[in-house]
Write a structure and sequence with these properties.
Elements (H helix, E strand, L loop, with lengths): L1 H31 L9 H7 L3 H23 L5 H15 L1
Length: 95
């Protein structure tokens, strides 16, 4: 029986997450569909859409590992000079 409770709790949490995502999507689409908006202001969207900034930070963190893996996998395709340039950029970042 405890497994059902766990599954039930997971479903409830998943539904709550989906509802939050729906609200964020609706708010963003409402903003984008406003004919008076001439230029999209991402900072405005992040500041004025409930939970969007937190969701975006979490998404970026999850996606960071994927990006790192893609970069590692593509390093062997780069020239020596390109690798040196990347190394210099990393050294500057550390300083």
């Amino acid at each position: 029986m405890p497994m059902r409770k766990d599954n039930s709790d997971e479903l409830i949490q998943e539904n709550e997450t989906n509802e939050k995502l729906e609200k964020m999507l609706a708010a963003v689409l409402h903003y984008l569909s406003d004919d008076e908006i001439e230029e999209i202001d991402i900072e405005y969207l992040l500041a004025n859409t409930e939970n969007l900034r937190d969701w975006w930070k979490n998404y970026q963190e999850k996606n960071k590992k994927k990006i790192e893996d893609e970069i590692k996998a593509s390093l062997n395709m780069l020239s020596f000079e390109e690798l040196e340039n990347i190394r210099e950029q990393i050294k500057k970042k550390k300083d």
